[in-house]
Each structure stands twice: as structure tokens, then as C-alpha cells.
């Protein structure tokens, strides 16, 4: 993708993205998707511009670029996740700096524990049992987890994880409609996030003129507007992460970020360029 | 590795072939993200088995069957529907514990990595667990991990660029040495004690037929998820 193309989708979508960002209060428990799912980067940019403070991020079940940007920009107080990295582009530099400096609280978890916590919340129960995991040092360190003897025979030890109820779930999808329905396809962790969260904010590439639930083929992969608090059309709103089959992750930007963000000064230059809407490859 | 003989296949192809052998008889093999060599091993097992095992590659499209989001792999594994899974590890110790999280005393780690991912869970629910590291580094193969991400103590295999071990009765036992490695060299490069059964065998080499599958349909299927790794398949 050229720098010129990047520039074209800037002005109007910024306003739309800001309408969602303003609904995320400082200090919120904010559920975010991994880089391979649906990431609302344009909204994250508005959070950083504000700048948001004291956010508690929840990775569903892991996090990538958007979390590293938020952490590096000083918007984050806590992170609960199964992992935080740039995937093939390596470890997350701002996260590691903050971890070393002790400026964020890290609640290390594992993918199925996060899924179980969200599933408990979407079912309205206070906790869920989870098989496995016993023997991991995570169980020793997570004081909010419990190991009990299964009350049913044969009564083996089993892990309980408490419900995870995010204040806000934020993600990006290909399509929304006027009723607030959002098509997530097979990225159903987005649906789980929305079911579990008090507030769900969805940015989308485009608005569908038809109700997404009217078509049975689409309905199965559609999050009903029942769970959606607000939507905004933000073309290219996931970039530089990818958006389904519409556009892939921008590996050149990831590589540039990984290289730049290796130092705090380089991170700041990258962030300034990104916030200004300049070509980050030149940052 | 020093002393690696000039052959018509690469070390990576030997590892892939060895993985395929370990998957013999499996019905469903799942492979996590960023695991090109295990993915190739699983795809090779599928070719050798005429379509069995079923292979699920996270991060893939054609070979990723999951439609219920990222929790489905774990739900599926919890029920015993995943027969084999792979774990890497920044550290692997003599009890079979795996550490993915970081080095030093937790929580004040001296070096942190990405996180635990699904490892604590998958290691405890999957029937056939295969620990895999392409290099064989004494800094990684340690007596005791700094943080137990995934608990050991259960049967599994450990495959490195130098040797294949199996975990049995509370310790690793050398199953075979790859060609070009000596037992002395292996001992000096392994931070934990392991048992050796005499005579020490050499890892089976890939047959020409296996190499043809590997460089044909396996490479093609691998390229969809791991284009760079697929391009490396071929003689060294």
C-alpha cells in the first residue's frame, strides 16, 4: 500500500472513530482482539490522541500491535492476556519496556482461562471450571483463581476462573448495518467479547444497506445489535492490522514499528507520525 | 551444527520426517501459530497416511477448520478431540516442564517473552505432546525452568536439532541421535541429565519417497501459512 492511499482515508473516518473513542472512559477494563481477528486501530489512535489514561486491557485471548501502541503511549495501567507480541515481527517492545520499568501491572493468563472467564460472563454465572492448567505456576500466582475438589465423583482437583466482565469491548469488522448488527464471520471471539461486555463498540469498513440478519447465510456469523452500543463506519479502520479478506496485515508497517519501537525515542517518532497521519514508514 | 554431513536432505527435512513418525496413528493433529516445522510434520503425516490424520493449522485458511473463534481449539482439546499438539519453549527442563513466559524469578523477570499462550492447558489435556526446538541449546535445555508455564511429568517426546528423547518414568530417555551428532556432544549441550539405552540408535533418515512428498504436496500446503519455511524445503 502506498503512502498516498494511506493518506486518503484520513479526515472523515477520524471523526467517526473519535465518536467511539469518547465512549471509552479512562480506567475502563477494555477487551481487545488479537491482531489476526478484528482490531479497531483507528479508534485506538483516537484514544491515544485524547490521551486516555489508566486503561486495563484484556486480551481475547492475546494482544498485539494495538496494545503495544497504547502501552507505549502511556494509556495503560494493567494488562491481562495470554500473550502480547508482534507475532512474526517479534516481541512487543513497548510492553517489555513497561514491564521492566514496572509501570504496568501484568496479569499473566492462558488462552482458555480468558475464554472461560468471558464465557462465564456471557452466561451470567460468577465463574467457570476449566480442565487442565493445574501444575502451571500461573495457578500459584493468580490469586483470583481457585482450585477445588470437583463436587461430583471422582472428585479430582479442578480449576475455577472468575467471570471476566469487560467495561468495553472494542473491535473492527467488515460490515455493520443500520440496526447495529455486525458481521464477524468465523471470528466468534468477537461475539463472545460482546456478549460478556457491558458496552460494545464496533467500527466497520462499510455499512450494509440490507439487514445482516435477514440473510440466513450471514446471520449465523452476525453479532446482533442487541449487544452493540455504538457503531461507526471507518474505512481501513483496522490498518495496519488486516481485515478479513479485504486487506492483509501491512507487514512493512509492522517491520518499521518493530525496528523503530526498539528504543523509546524511536517509538515516540513512530507514534508522532502515526497520530499526525503521516507516512509511518518515513518516521 | 558442526560436522553435519553433506547429504541430499536438510536437517529441517529430517526433523519434519521424524515428527511425521511421532504422529503415526493419530486421528487429529493441531498445530499452533508460528510452528512451521511441526506444521510440515503434521502435513507429511497426512500425506503418508493417505489423508489421516486430520490436520488443523492455526493461522491457516484451508487447513483451519475452526468456526467458533479462538476458543474452539481449546474446547475441542478438552474433550479429547485433539490427539497431538506441539510446544516450543524458551526453557525445557529434565522433568518435561516448559517455560514460555520469561527468565529470572517471577514476577520480576529479567527477560520476558510474549506469554504463556494456551500451553498450560494444551500440555495437560492432549494425549500426545511433542516438545520441539529446532536448535539444541544448553541455555534452553535446563535442569529446572525458571517458570513452569506448562507442567511436565507426563509422557511426551522432545525433538531437537540434535536428538529425539521420550519422557518416561520421570526422566528423559534418549531415543535416537541425529546423524552427525555424538553422545558426548549431546551430553555437553544438554543442561539436564537423561538416560541412554544401549545401543544408541541413529534417527531414521527420510526415504526418497518421503522426500518427494515433502517437497511436493507438503511444501504446497505449507506455503499457504508459512511461505518462507516452505521455500526452505529441499536438499541442504
Please give a quick description of this structure.
The complex is a heterodimer of chains A (about 280) and B (about 240). With about 280 residues, chain A is α/β, with parallel strands linked by helices. Chain A has eleven helices and twelve strands.
CATH architecture of chain B: 3-Layer(aba) Sandwich
The largest beta-sheet of chain B arranges its strands as 3-8-10-11-12-13
Mean of residue pLDDT of chain B?
93
Poorly predicted runs of chain A = 1-11
If you had to describe this structure to a student in words, what would you say it looks like?
The complex is a heterodimer of chains A (283) and B (236). Chain A is an alpha/beta fold and 283 residues long. Chain A folds into 2 domains: 3-126 and 163-282, 3-Layer(aba) Sandwich (Glutaconate Coenzyme A-transferase), CATH 3.40.1080; 127-162, no CATH class. Helices cover 34% and strands 22% of the residues of chain A. Chain A has helices spanning 3-8, 11-21, 41-49, 65-72, 93-101, 111-123, 137-141, 189-196, 216-219, 251-260, 264-276; strands at 29-32, 55-59, 76-81, 105-108, 127-130, 146-149, 157-162, 168-177, 182-183, 199-208, 222-223, 230-233. In chain A, the strands form 2 sheets. In chain A, strands 1, 2, 3, 4, 8, 9, 10, 11 and 12 form a 9-stranded mixed β-sheet that branches. In chain A, strand 8 (168-177) and strand 9 form a beta hairpin. In chain A, helix 2 (11-21) packs across helix 3. Chain A is globular and about 60 Å long. Mean pLDDT of chain A is 94; it is low at 1-11. With 236 residues, chain B is an alpha/beta fold. Chain B has one domain (11-231): Glutaconate Coenzyme A-transferase, CATH 3.40.1080. Chain B is 29% helix and 20% strand. Chain B has 7 helices and 13 strands. Chain B has a 6-stranded mixed β-sheet with strand order 3-8-10-11-12-13, sandwiched between helices. A 3-stranded mixed β-sheet of chain B has the order 5-4-9, with no helix packed on it. In chain B, strands 1-2 form a two-stranded parallel ribbon. The two termini of chain B are 12 Å apart. The model of chain B is unreliable at 1-6 (pLDDT under 50). Classes of the chains: A alpha/beta (283), B alpha/beta (236). Chain A binds chain B through residues 34, 36-37, 60-62, 81-85, 87-88, 91-92, 96, 99-100, 106, 108-113, 115, 119, 130-138, 141, 186-192, and chain B through 33-34, 59, 66-71, 74, 78, 101, 106-107, 109, 112-125, 147-151, 153.
Amino acid at each position: 500500500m502506498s503512502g498516498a492511499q494511506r493518506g486518503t482515508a484520513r479526515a472523515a473516518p477520524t471523526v467517526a472513530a473519535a465518536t467511539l473513542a469518547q465512549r471509552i472512559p479512562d480506567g475502563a477494563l477494555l477487551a481487545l482482539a488479537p491482531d489476526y481477528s478484528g482490531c479497531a486501530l483507528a479508534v485506538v489512535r483516537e484514544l491515544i490522541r485524547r490521551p486516555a489514561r489508566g486503561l486495563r486491557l484484556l486480551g481475547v485471548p492475546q494482544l498485539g500491535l494495538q496494545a503495544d501502541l497504547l502501552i507505549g503511549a502511556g494509556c495503560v495501567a494493567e494488562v491481562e492476556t495470554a500473550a502480547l507480541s508482534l507475532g512474526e515481527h517479534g516481541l512487543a517492545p513497548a510492553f517489555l519496556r513497561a514491564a521492566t520499568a514496572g509501570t504496568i501491572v501484568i496479569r499473566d493468563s492462558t488462552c482458555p482461562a480468558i475464554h472461560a472467564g468471558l464465557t462465564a460472563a456471557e452466561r451470567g454465572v460468577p465463574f467457570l471450571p476449566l480442565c487442565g492448567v493445574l501444575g502451571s505456576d500461573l495457578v500459584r500466582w493468580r490469586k483470583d483463581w481457585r482450585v477445588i475438589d470437583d463436587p461430583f465423583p471422582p472428585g479430582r482437583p479442578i480449576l475455577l476462573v472468575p467471570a471476566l466482565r469487560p467495561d468495553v469491548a472494542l473491535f473492527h469488522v467488515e460490515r455493520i448495518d443500520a440496526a447495529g448488527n455486525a458481521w464477524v464471520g468465523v471470528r466468534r471471539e468477537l461475539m463472545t467479547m460482546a456478549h460478556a461486555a457491558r458496552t460494545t463498540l464496533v467500527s466497520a469498513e462499510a455499512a450494509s444497506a440490507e439487514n445482516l440478519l435477514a440473510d440466513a447465510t450471514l446471520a449465523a456469523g452476525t453479532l446482533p445489535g442487541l449487544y452493540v452500543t455504538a457503531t461507526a463506519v471507518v474505512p481501513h479502520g483496522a490498518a495496519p492490522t488486516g481485515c478479513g479478506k479485504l486487506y492483509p496485515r501491512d507487514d512493512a508497517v509492522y517491520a518499521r514499528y518493530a525496528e523503530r519501537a526498539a528504543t523509546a525515542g524511536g517509538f515516540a517518532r513512530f507514534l508522532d507520525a502515526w497520530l499526525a497521519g503521516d507516512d509511518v514508514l518515513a518516521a | 551444527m558442526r560436522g553435519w554431513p553433506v547429504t541430499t536432505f536438510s536437517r529441517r527435512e529430517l526433523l519434519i520426517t521424524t515428527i511425521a513418525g511421532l504422529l503415526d496413528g493419530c486421528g487429529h493433529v493441531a498445530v499452533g501459530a508460528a510452528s512451521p516445522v511441526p506444521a510440515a510434520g503434521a502435513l507429511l503425516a497426512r500425506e503418508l497416511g493417505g489423508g489421516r490424520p486430520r490436520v488443523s493449522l492455526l493461522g491457516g485458511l484451508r487447513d483451519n477448520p475452526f468456526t467458533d473463534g479462538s476458543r474452539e481449539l481449546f474446547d475441542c482439546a478438552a474433550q479429547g478431540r485433539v490427539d497431538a499438539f506441539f510446544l516450543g519453549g524458551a526453557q525445557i527442563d529434565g522433568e518435561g516442564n516448559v517455560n514460555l513466559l520469561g527468565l529470572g524469578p517471577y514476577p520480576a523477570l529479567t527477560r520476558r517473552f510474549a506469554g504463556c499462550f494456551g500451553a498450560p492447558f494444551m500440555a495437560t489435556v492432549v494425549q500426545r505432546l511433542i516438545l520441539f526446538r529446532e536448535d539444541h541449546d544448553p541455555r534452553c535445555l535446563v535442569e529446572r525452568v525458571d517458570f513452569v508455564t506448562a507442567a511436565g511429568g507426563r509422557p511426551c517426546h522432545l525433538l531437537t536439532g540434535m536428538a529425539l528423547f521420550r519422557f518416561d518414568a520421570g526422566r528423559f530417555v534418549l531415543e535416537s541421535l541425529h546423524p552427525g551428532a555424538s553422545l558426548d556432544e549431546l551430553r555437553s549441550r544438554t543442561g539436564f541429565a537423561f538416560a541412554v539405552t544401549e545401543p544408541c540408535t541413529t534417527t531414521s533418515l527420510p526415504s526418497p519417497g518421503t522426500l518427494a512428498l515433502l517437497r511436493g504436496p507438503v511444501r504446497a500446503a505449507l506455503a499457504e501459512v508459512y511461505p518462507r519455511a516452505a521455500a526452505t524445503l529441499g536438499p541442504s
